[in-house]
Write a structure and sequence with these properties.
0% strand, mainly alpha
Length: 189
């Protein structure tokens, strides 16, 4: 084995052993393991990332980056559910769609940069956000969210209107005007 691979392997094994030692010494299996089990998913995601970035031919293992991202991001809604209640699942489920979108974003960033992949990833990231905005509008904060969205919309509209009124000058316009000035000054046609 190469020296670099030995160091990576030793580092991963040391981290896994240290986490096991910490879990045993903190007695997480006895009391709080019911609340901390998503930590194992997060740890699995981190290990998958380490394996992905340790390989030389990453573009051939882009599925591993998707899986690492999906598992890591999915652990967040699971943490929320375990610390609150599984009764809140009807509000948290879009987080899993978000995890798929984030995974596809890593496929786009680390794999072949196909526009279809990026578009689908953006849709899968925007959809949960819109669903959460809809859920929030139905809550006691709905009025505040409506006013904030209205202010954001007015700001974008005003910015767009202000930009339309300014004369736009491109680099090609500048070079053409400089060329015309030179022709007029020398008297040549």
């Amino acid at each position: 084995m190469e020296a670099k691979k030995k160091q990576i392997f030793t580092g991963i094994i040391t981290i896994i052993i240290s986490i096991i030692v910490l879990i045993v010494n903190l007695k997480l299996f006895e009391e709080d393991f019911g609340k901390l089990w998503p930590t194992l998913l997060l740890l699995l995601g981190v290990i998958l990332y380490i394996f992905y970035f340790a390989t030389k031919k990453r573009h051939k293992r882009v599925g591993l980056s998707f899986l690492a991202t999906f598992v890591s991001v999915s652990s967040i809604p699971l943490f929320i559910l375990t610390f609150t209640s599984f009764e809140h699942f009807n509000y948290i489920w879009p987080g899993f769609i978000l995890a798929i979108g984030c995974g596809l974003t890593t496929v786009y960033l680390y794999g072949e940069r196909r526009r279809g992949t990026l578009f689908f990833a953006q849709v899968l990231i925007a959809l949960p956000l819109l669903i959460w905005i809809f859920f929030a509008m139905r809550s006691k904060f709905g009025l505040v969210i409506g006013v904030v969205l209205l202010m954001i919309g007015v700001a974008f509209l005003a910015r767009g209107l202000i930009r339309d009124n300014k004369p736009s000058v491109s680099v090609s316009d500048l070079s053409e005007s400089e060329g015309e000035g030179d022709v007029g000054q020398t008297g040549e046609v």
